[in-house]
Write a structure and sequence with these properties.
This protein has helices spanning about 1-15, 25-35, 35-65, 70-75, 75-95, 110-115, 120-135, 145-165, 170-175, 185-200. By secondary structure, the protein is an all-alpha fold. The chain has one domain. The longest helix has 29 residues, at about 35-65. It is globular, with a radius of gyration of 17 Å.
Amino acid sequence: MSILIAFALAFSFSFIGTIPPGTLNLSVLQLGLENKLKAAWQFSIAAALIEYPYCWIAIRFEKLITSSPTIVENFERIGAIVMLVLGILNLISLRKQHIKKVDAKEYGFTTGLILGVLNPLAMPYWIAITAYLKSQRWLVLDTFAELQAYLIGVVLGALSFFMVAAYLAQRVAVYLKGNSVLKYIPAITLIILGLYGLIHSLR
């Protein structure tokens, strides 16, 4: 059961975390708009696979950070504060964000790998998410199977969003490039979870 929970949590947060406009999802949208679904698949698989090592490293960092007795005692409160800060910073960055149109002609598996590696938000995002889920006792990663289920969920969650975006490019592009509430979902989710964790820790 814990394996399924780990997978479901990772899949959900990975799907949600891929929504904000950026080079990766806008590149997939470009490919979808140009009906280059084969290139979109190659690009998406490569970009999603990069999430696996990033999340694995994030889990290691999370264990290192939470190894201090002081941090363990205040684990839930610290995790909640981190979630709140990330959510607020996410909102601020969205307000200042200007995204350039990408050239989809040369996009494929190699480009997906390169841009996936250059994604700066993946690691801090997964450190915060993993720490929070553990603090709420929703997530257990004590076994190899649970860890792999979590990591695979991360990869498949990102891949699922990329391919939904590619196949529904005509409609999705309008929402992601405009002032839709869709792009604010990850930030709002982080803030709500942070507030919940903070209130719960103060009881």
